[in-house]
Amino acid sequence: MPNHEVTIEPISEGALTRYKITVAFGTHTSHASYETLEAALDSFEPPLSARVRSHVVEAMRGGEKSVMFCLEDSLEIQ
Description:
By secondary structure, the chain is of the alpha+beta class. The protein contains 2 helices and 4 strands, in the order βββααβ. The chain has one domain (4-73).
């Protein structure tokens, strides 16, 4: 059974940076865009674990172009 693969990437629009979330499951994908990284991370229900949130924030601060993770392994209920 395939997992939900999540990619979060910053999208620069001039001086503004938005965050695009892509969730892929098998051959299906969905996209959403958020004004802030915090809003993007808060959009998951159930919430992402503190470990995954920290990893994403640190990667973005470090200049990563995108961060990818498996949703099933990243939720707080685990």
